[in-house]
Amino acid sequence: MNNEKKKVRVNNKEYAVIRFAGDSGDGIQLVGSQFASATAISGNVLSTLPDYPAEIRSPQGSLGGVSGFQVAFGDDKVMNPGSKADFLVVMNPAALKVNLKYLDKGSVIIANSGNFTEENLKKAGYTSNPLEDGSLSNYRVISVDVNSLVEEALKDSPLSKAEKLKTKNFFMLGLLYWMFDLPVEVTANWIDEKFAKKPEIAEANKKVLYAGYNYAENTEIFDAKYNIEKGKLEPGIYHNITGNEAVCYSLIAASKKLKRKCYYASYPITPASEILHTFAKLKSKDVVVFQAEDEIAAICSSIGASFAGCLSATGTSGPGLSLKTEALGLAVISELPLVLIDVQRGGPSTGLPTKTEQSDLFISLFGRHWDCPLVILAATSPSDCFYTVYEAARIAVKYMTPVIVLTSAYIAQGSQPLRIPKEEELKDFELPPLPDPDKFKPYLRDEKTFARPWAYPPLKGYEHRIGGLEKSNIEGNVSYDPENHQIMTNFRRDKIKKVSSEIPPTEVYGDQNSDTLILGWGSTYGAIRSAIIKAQEENIKVAGVILKYLNPLPPDLGNIVSRFKKVYVVEENDGQMAFVLRANFQSANIISKTKVTGQPYTTEEIFRIIKSEK
Amino acid sequence: MTKLTPNDFSSNLPIKWCPGCGDYAILTSVKKAMADLGIEHEKYVVVSGIGCSSRFPYYVNVYGYHTIHGRAIPIATGVKLSNPDLMVFVVTGDGDALSIGGNHFIHGIRRNIGLKVLMFNNRIYALTKGQASPTTLSGSKTKTTPEGSFDYPFNPVSLAVNLGAPFVARSIDTDVNLTSSLIIEAARNDGFAFIEILQKCVVFTDKEFDVFKNPETKDEMVVKIEDGKPMIFGKNKNKAIILDGFNPKIVEFDPKNPPSNLTLYDSSNIHMASIISSLIPPEFPLPVGIFYKINKKSYEKMYYENAKKEINSIEELLKENSYEITK
């Protein structure tokens, strides 16, 4: 090794995108999230996205078994995990083959050449070694034999060869921490905690982590460091959180604010299960968590808990939402508060369980018998899941209605720093007034919101009966009266319409006077906003709107969409929102732009839509 | 607390069951049991599914929820799990509990959630006007089995015993004293308590249970099982069911001089409960009473014993792995 101080170039960048890839058993998700934590603690804005195969463990070294994790970090422009990677870290040939499409010319590939064996190359379908045959000449390739360096670093360790090799990800991490000047201690401390009961493994992992760092520091092939801009984050305590985790913490925060028990019931389903996992660790007297026998039982038990006065929720994904629709109808006619989180994935049927889509808008709007309206919100990012679910809970209670929150695999599994709000910063809950027992009637509505009172057992004097049969207005007894059914149908419709008074003015991003509006909803937020910023940088006139309130729609939306000559509705389904907007705003020029590949819209794709119309 | 009477549980709604329906007598039994249990009025919750029996909540003036077909058990589970202090009854029928709600029935028992499930068994889908149900006996002619059904019915008590419900009993609609006493025992059991109540449907299964009620036949066709007592039946109390190893048998004897080795019923013995609950007329008389009664910790009790974690705020929850950004 060279003892002279080597020359290191320092590159300044606003942001960078790093993609980690390897075998699904390689611990790629772990390394990716450790790297993300290090950037977060350094004050970067960041956004992450795991990309893992549906199978738990495909054969080692195979193309189908490649697991990926992408991190974008930098200044405030980071709004999504990015599409193209500037840096690709690959642990084997299959990972390289699968992920090369995410690289532009000039990007950096860091490869563990130790795993580019003849056998692995064959499994990935390579006839010669791409690290050596010149086929990667468009990229800057840093090839490091991590396997032997790890063995060398751990030559005195009592661990077996297989155990030693397992530490190789930490070597890669060490290399990267040097390249991006990130604090190694974050991961070193994490290792100490994680492997507290296995000190020899902790020791080996840390040794390898520092070995990686020192290797980069001391070898000539690492001749460039990258100085990535920090974000202008609001001061406070932050937690890097996935969308699914944010759902859980939001419901707990809402129940604390409301001062009621939180109840969450669910049935395992990809990609919503992490909500249940997060809750499961927090089971307590005030946070009741229930794994039901099926999707129907999950929502039904949540409705029961709501009848018993809890802030109640259930979570699922497409196929589960299909199963829950009858019970949603019960929640609508019973006029009980309920939050349903639907983590959208590719469909129909089993579809693409681990891939993202936005195709549950129609089922949320129309997927019930009857005229059966309810409130639908969409979350725009991992950290926004916290605020959207909180808003859903607030509306559910204020208006005594089920609320569906549409997230998606993309934001549910991706992560972002969430500034943890203090309880006093969160909006207050407004319960419908509960009159004295002698004046109480189950369907005596609040004049302003049309919400019925929420009396629940064992409140003395409020014993009452509700159910799925139509109820008489005010008294709440079973009623087959034709006039009454009309009245109750109108109330159910008008109550949901009244929720529009909760919707803040719609924010129009970009150039207010352009002819073109890009309109999206929910999880395409990051890609659309980034594309609008990019257009502005290139002096292209375009405006953007990303909807969060899907039913009812914002009251000012009609004026906005009519103001633009062309409204491109961009969504990850076959044109569902475009259909809804055409039905609502006949005079608007709605042009549907869709994509259903299981992959989220990228900034570049939306930018191309903007550009092609100029 | 002032003593409540059955009338304190009457709602003022007109009852819409057919005249002569077995449900009227069951309603009387439930109100009697509710009064006798001495639980505060506001702590009772009655949850039902869909079917004739499921109109039940409208006719008792406690907290009630008439829900959707087959889903009474999961909805009641949400009520009970969120507040174990409530006394939660599920009123359901043979179609509601065992057909469309079959999955919830077996999982409710597996989990041992502390619901008191009263299943009114009229062996027919009555509200939808006469289709075969999962308890319709083989050979019965119904709208959907005009030639007579050829498949096999569930035996609900046998099913519940063998799934491990800690309280399983059977009664007959007209026996108000037995039904109400069973409900009281069920309510005092910590876990999932199941009572099958044979219920006559005047329209479709009018004669179905006559043999168990008719003074001419009932003594020969019904045996009341009681803990610690022999299973004696017959007009002259001259017969008993005994267990010969695994085999149930009927023995006849001189009632003045009953044999000393008659099998004594033991409701805590799962094997005995399993055998006796499986007996089906006409080979054997219909057993009524408590088949199985044990102490088995309920799901909600275990939940709250394990849920020791205190959550004060999300700030506290998210403290770990959090970091501070300063200006």
Could you explain the architecture of this structure?
The complex is a heterodimer of chains A (614) and B (327). In chain A, the strands form five sheets. In chain A, strands 10, 11, 12, 13, 14, 15, 16 and 22 form an eight-stranded mixed beta sheet that branches. Chain A is α/β, with parallel strands linked by helices and 614 residues long. Chain A has four domains: 9-228, Pyruvate-ferredoxin oxidoreductase, PFOR, domain III (Pyruvate-ferredoxin Oxidoreductase, domain 3, 3-Layer(aba) Sandwich), CATH 3.40.920.10; 239-425, Thiamin diphosphate (ThDP)-binding fold, Pyr/PP domains (Rossmann fold), CATH 3.40.50; 437-502, no CATH class; 509-612, Rossmann fold (3-Layer(aba) Sandwich), CATH 3.40.50.920. Helices cover 36% and strands 23% of the residues of chain A. With 327 residues, chain B is of the alpha/beta class. Chain B has a domain at 6-208 and 297-305: Thiamin diphosphate (ThDP)-binding fold, Pyr/PP domains (Rossmann fold, 3-Layer(aba) Sandwich), CATH 3.40.50. In chain B, 27% of the residues lie in helices and 20% in strands. Chain B has an eight-stranded mixed beta sheet, sandwiched between helices. Chain B starts with 22 loop residues before the first helix and ends with a strand. The mean pLDDT of chain B is 96. Chains A and B meet through helix 1, strand 9, helix 9, strand 11 and helix 11 of A and strand 1, strand 2, helix 2, helix 4 and helix 9 of B. Strand 18 of chain A pairs parallel with strand 2 (63-66) of chain B.
